[in-house]
Design a protein that fits this description.
single chain, 493 residues, alpha+beta, Chloramphenicol Acetyltransferase, six-stranded mixed beta sheet
Length: 493
């Protein structure tokens, strides 16, 4: 048999940063827990059923050969690249595990937290799916883990759409996922790196020529970037206040989940304006204040705190060609101060809404994106050191991210998807992260914590539930408590 082509693709500068940020105690993969009701022909009851689901997942993943590629590095610069993995084996990536009895959500959260804490193997393609059997009511779950250098939140939603269907199905046509060639030789890689550097220099020269032809546009862009960079410089505030949530990771992870109806979130926005993100961050802020109070900080001391959130911002362009937006990272970050020591939900909401609106128009995200691009011109060792130094600055107390998910129901073959719990990685020095994802009329909240800073995440989820109820009650005047659903004891339909 003849040899196939030797394929290699450099990681983007932003994708590579997630490799630089990773350590054994701080793995940088995103994840989602998908909970399914049993379908007429779909379950995990035996090995044949599990194999059938694995082949169905393979069919969706086969749209992108990146899922059959592994990491390598260019010999001159150390720059990471994707190369075909000739030893790719689907069974190494789609694995199964049975939950301990009684198979309630407490057991699901415990098992998923254990699996999320484990870094992906960099010698293989950087993803895995766990088929989790044993949920009560014949339900089952999938835990999907993909390294952040492969996908961000929006690309992750695209992956969900690839492996699931919008209509129930009982059969399917197989489509194998495999590498199309073999790993390139070291000499080839060195030559490609030289070509890349030459091409990058030519591109920079072309940009200079274009700038000369459009001086006014160039000046406008430079001023806008300058404002954003000044904003970033002002982020050289003293580090965000220490709250007990900031500690070196122990590696012992916890997960907690919550779900709210989108119509209740819209009721808050109808009363006070703002965005869904404003509702989410205000809920987190109120819960954080209650958490700090429970840990001995009274209102006076909380008012002295400088609390900040980091919020990923999608930087995709509507003009990007098909497929480009469906992989890798196209994000930047904004940072915003959030209230501390404020008890009124309406005032918290107003201050959060104002802070996020100001951050969005500050061009901070654009400037940070430019800085990350410039990092691609630095030697790999220097970039890695600068990345870890930047993460150690403790600019924010936690990450809060919101991803718009599918509005219509999805199916794994003919098994309906009921819940979608998103999980984002913990950045070094942060022991709590919050991710939300909309799906079929509900907003699903995923709380991810390391025990070094959060000893009881279930308690945090109770505080988040109460915080949302306080927001909703004051916005609507309903006084109703109970529409936020804490997912800590048992699965419900």
């Amino acid at each position: 048999m003849g040899r196939g082509p030797r394929n290699s693709t450099p990681l983007s500068d932003q994708d590579a940063l997630f490799l630089d940020a990773e350590s054994e105690a701080s793995p940088m993969h995103v994840a989602v827990v998908l909970v399914f009701a049993p379908g007429p022909t779909t379950s995990l009851r035996d090995e044949a059923a599990r194999s059938r689901i694995a082949r169905f997942l393979e069919r969706g993943l086969a749209i992108d050969r990146r899922y059959a590629q592994r990491l390598d590095h260019l010999p001159l610069s150390g720059r990471p690249i994707w190369v075909d993995d000739p030893d790719f084996d689907l069974d190494r990536h789609v694995r199964s595990r049975r939950l301990p009895a009684p198979g309630r959500e407490a057991q699901l959260r415990t098992v998923c937290a254990e699996l999320v804490a484990q870094p992906l193997d960099r010698t293989r393609p950087l993803w895995e799916v766990w088929l989790l059997d044993g949920l009560e009511g014949d339900r089952f779950a999938l835990l999907v883990k993909v390294h952040h250098c492969l996908v961000d939140g929006v690309a992750g939603i695209g992956l969900m759409g690839a492996i699931l269907g919008v209509e129930p199905a009982s059969d399917f046509e197989s489509r194998p996922l495999r590498a199309s060639g073999e790993s390139p030789l070291r000499a080839e890689l060195a030559l490609r790196e030289i070509r890349r550097r030459v091409d990058a220099g030519l591109e920079l020269a072309e940009r200079g020529v274009r700038a000369l032809h459009d001086p006014r546009g160039t000046l406008r862009r430079a001023r806008r970037l300058g404002r954003g960079l000044r904003r970033l410089v002002r982020l050289d505030w003293p580090p965000a206040s220490r709250t007990g949530l900031d500690a070196p990771h122990e590696g012992r992870r916890q997960l907690a989940f919550m779900a709210t109806d989108l119509e209740r979130i819209e009721a808050i926005r109808a009363r006070w304006g703002g965005t869904l993100n404003d509702v989410v961050v205000a809920t987190v802020d109120l819960a954080l204040q209650d958490y700090l109070e429970d840990h001995g900080l009274d209102t006076r001391h909380r008012r002295e705190l400088d609390l900040r959130v980091a919020i990923p911002v999608d930087r995709r362009s509507a003009t990007e060609p098909d497929g480009v937006a469906d992989r890798g990272n196209h994000i930047s970050m904004i940072f915003a101060r959030i209230p501390s020591g404020e008890r009124s939900p309406s005032r918290v909401y107003a201050r959060v809404s104002g802070a996020l609106a100001q951050a969005k128009v500050s061009h901070m995200a654009e400037a940070l994106e430019a800085v990350m691009t410039l990092a691609g011109w630095s030697p790999q060792r220097l970039t890695r050191a600068l990345t870890r130094r930047a993460l150690a600055l403790h600019v924010a107390n936690l990450v809060v991210t919101n991803v718009r998910g599918p509005s219509a129901p999805l199916y794994l073959l003919d098994a309906p998807l009921e819940r979608t719990w998103p999980i984002v990685p913990l950045m070094p020095g942060q022991t709590l992260a919050v991710a939300v994802m909309s799906y079929a009329g509900r907003l699903h909240w995923g709380f991810h914590a390391d025990r070094a800073g959060v000893r009881d995440l279930n308690h945090w989820s109770i505080l988040a539930e109460r915080a949302f109820e306080r927001l909703h009650a004051e916005a609507t005047g309903s006084g109703r408590h109970g529409g936020a659903e804490r997912r800590g004891t048992r699965l419900t339909g």
